[in-house]
Write a structure and sequence with these properties.
The complex is a heterodimer of chains A (115) and B (115). Chain A is mostly beta strands. In chain A, 0% of the residues lie in helices and 53% in strands. Chain A has no helices and 11 strands. In chain A, strands 2, 4, 5, 6, 9, 10 and 11 form a 7-stranded mixed β-sheet that branches. In chain A, strand 5 and strand 6 (53-57) form a beta hairpin. Chain A is globular. In chain B, a hairpin with a 5-residue loop joins strand 5 and strand 6. Chain B is globular, with a radius of gyration of 14 Å. Chain B has strands spanning 3-5, 10-14, 19-21, 24-26, 32-38, 44-49, 56-58, 64-68, 73-78, 87-94, 104-105, 109-114. Chain B contains no helices and 12 strands. In chain B, strands 2, 5, 6, 10, 11 and 12 form a 6-stranded mixed β-sheet that branches. A 4-stranded antiparallel β-sheet of chain B has the order 3-9-8-7, with no helix packed on it. A two-stranded antiparallel sheet of chain B has the order 1-4. With 115 residues, chain B is an all-beta fold. The chains are: A mainly beta (115), B mainly beta (115). Chain A binds chain B through residues 4, 6, 31, 33, 35, 42-43, 45, 48, 55-56, 58, 90, 92, 94, 99-109, 111, and chain B through 31-32, 34, 36, 41-46, 49-52, 90, 94, 96, 100-108.
Chain lengths: 115, 115
C-alpha cells in the first residue's frame, strides 16, 4: 500500500496570507489527524477527521481549520498567518481500532515557513 | 489529561553500546503506548506499539520496549547501537477509552551515536 502523502512538501508564505495543506491517507483509512511540530512546543495535536466529520480538536485558535472529503483526503487551512505558525505540519492516518489502539501512520510533513 | 515525559532531550552512545531511552506516562486509564522515530526532514515512523498483557514488546530495527505498569513506564532499548539509529525518538500515548486516535507525544529524545 502507498503511504500517507502530503503536498506540498515545502511552502513559504508571508504574514497575513492564508495557506492550504493537503493530505492523502493510506487507502482504506478513514481517520486523518493533523499535528504541528515546532522546536519549542514539540508535537501538538490540531484535529482529527473521521468520515468527513471533525471528531476531535486540539487547543489551537480558530485560524486553523480543516476538512475531510468523501475519499478521506483531508485539507487543513491556516488563515491570517503569523510568524509563529512556521512549523512542520504532519498528517497521520489510521484504520480500524485494534488491540493496540489506533495505530497512526504519518506522512513526510509540509514544512511551512512564514516570513 | 494524559501526559508523557521523556527523560533526557539528548542521549549519546557509542556504536555497539546499549541504547536506553526513557518514557513515563500519566494517564487515568491504561493507555495505548507507542514509540516513533523521526529522521531529519522526514515524518514519524512507528517503531513499536504496546500490546495489552505483554511486558516486553519487540519492534523494528532491533528495538524493544518494556512496559511496567507499577512504574507507568515504557522505556525503549536496543542492545547494540548502530550509526543509522541516530535520530529523534518520540514516546506517545493515546487514551484507552476515549474512542479517539489522538496521540499525546513526549518532547522527544535525540539519539546521537558516535563511532
Amino acid at each position: 500500500k502507498a503511504g500517507v502523502t502530503q503536498t506540498p512538501r515545502y511552502l513559504i508564505k508571508t504574514r497575513g496570507q492564508q495557506v492550504t495543506l493537503s493530505c492523502s491517507p493510506i487507502s482504506g483509512h478513514r481517520s486523518v489527524s493533523w499535528y504541528q511540530q515546532t522546536p519549542g512546543q514539540g508535537l501538538q495535536f490540531l484535529f482529527e477527521y473521521f468520515s468527513e466529520t471533525q471528531r476531535n480538536k486540539g487547543n489551537f485558535p480558530g485560524r486553523f481549520s480543516g476538512r475531510q472529503f468523501s475519499n478521506s483526503r483531508s485539507e487543513m487551512n491556516v488563515s491570517t498567518l503569523e510568524l509563529g505558525d512556521s512549523a512542520l505540519y504532519l498528517c497521520a492516518s489510521s484504520g480500524a481500532f485494534s488491540g493496540t489502539g489506533y495505530e497512526q501512520y504519518f506522512g513526510p510533513g509540509t514544512r511551512l515557513t512564514v516570513t | 489529561a494524559q501526559s508523557v515525559t521523556q527523560l533526557g532531550s539528548h542521549v549519546s552512545v557509542s556504536e555497539g553500546a546499549l541504547v536506553l531511552l526513557r518514557c513515563n506516562y500519566s494517564s487515568s486509564v491504561p493507555p495505548y503506548l507507542f514509540w516513533y522515530v523521526q529522521y531529519p526532514n522526514q515524518g514519524l515512523q512507528l517503531l513499536l506499539k504496546y500490546t495489552t498483557g505483554a511486558t516486553l514488546v519487540k519492534g523494528i530495527n532491533g528495538f524493544e520496549a518494556e512496559f511496567k505498569k507499577s512504574e507507568t513506564s515504557f522505556h525503549l532499548t536496543k542492545p547494540s547501537a548502530h550509526m543509522s539509529d541516530a535520530a529523534e525518538y518520540f514516546c506517545a500515548v493515546s487514551e484507552g477509552n476515549s474512542g479517539y486516535s489522538t496521540l499525546t507525544f513526549g518532547k522527544g529524545t535525540m539519539l546521537l551515536v558516535s563511532p
